[in-house]
Specification:
264 residues; alpha/beta; seven-stranded mixed beta sheet; 8 helices; 33% helix; elongated
Length: 264
């Protein structure tokens, strides 16, 4: 069973959060997209007197400086340039691919200067796949529908320039075609069934299937191959990419003013 409080307490998660907060500039007003339990919204109050916490379901919170709203990143109901900063982490990997560019365009539109973006980095989406017992759909691990590298992520934000890029964390799950084929044959018994996300097709809670001794023996080979891969290079692979974007026009205007001051 997924436990968000337990996840928040892990060393890996705390390092991810610390990196994001150190990357985030100060300002007056910030929008957090995908606020969930408002854990990061509370931290953002140290940098912004006004925090808007948005999620698909309106977050339940009653805290000074935080306003909770229901909304969707693909259609933000805010005016252009409404926030000094838009803070969006662990969200874009879940957006349907056909709506991903629309979501990023909305972030650019409502941010007056900055956007702080965090997503998994070059994730092997074949690793730890679960299969829904109800509808038979093979799900990506933790419902991740998109894979990002530095080039793709920066290209998704037209009109913004990366001010700082960080690769954070170490130890990424990896796999190979043979292991994938074995897991498929055995019904994906070692997927990420403890995840919070339900089936991407029917929404049903994912339940780990039972396997017999022959299937267990086959999967033992697949798990051994994955473990060897992890030790060889998976444990050194970055887990996340965090980028601080700044609006290109804002930077250009600031540079123009700075240069103008040199000649006064």
């Amino acid at each position: 069973m997924f436990d968000i409080a337990r996840q928040r307490g892990t060393v890996r998660e705390q390092l991810r959060i610390a990196d994001l907060m150190s990357l985030t500039p100060k300002g007056k007003r910030v929008l957090e997209i995908g606020a969930r339990d408002c854990y990061l919204s509370r931290k953002l109050t140290a940098l912004y007197p006004e925090v808007v916490a948005l999620d698909l379901t309106k977050p339940e919170i009653d805290a000074p400086g935080i306003t909770a709203v229901q909304g969707d990143v693909t259609g933000l109901r805010f005016a252009d340039n409404a926030f000094d900063t838009v803070f969006c982490t662990e969200v874009l990997e879940h957006v349907p691919p056909e709506k991903l560019q629309q979501a990023c365009n909305e972030i650019v539109r409502v941010a007056s200067r900055y956007a702080v973006i965090g997503v998994p980095y070059r994730q092997d989406l074949r690793a730890n796949r679960p299969r829904c017992l109800r509808c038979g759909a093979v799900n990506p691990t933790t419902g991740h529908l998109n894979r990002f590298d530095r080039q793709r992520l920066t290209a998704l934000f037209p009109g913004m320039t990366p001010r700082e890029i960080r690769l954070t964390g170490r130890g990424q799950a990896v796999t190979n075609p043979l292991s994938v084929a074995i897991y498929r044959l055995c019904g994906y018994p070692y997927g990420s069934y403890e995840q919070e996300e339900g089936c991407i097709r029917c929404g049903e809670k994912l339940v780990r299937p039972k396997i017999d001794r022959i299937q267990w023996a086959l999967c033992f080979v697949a798990r051994a191959l994955n473990q060897i891969q992890y030790k060889l290079y998976g444990r050194n692979r970055p887990i996340w990419i965090h980028i601080l974007f700044e609006k290109t026009a804002w930077r250009a205007e600031a540079e123009r003013r700075r240069r103008g001051g040199l000649y006064q």
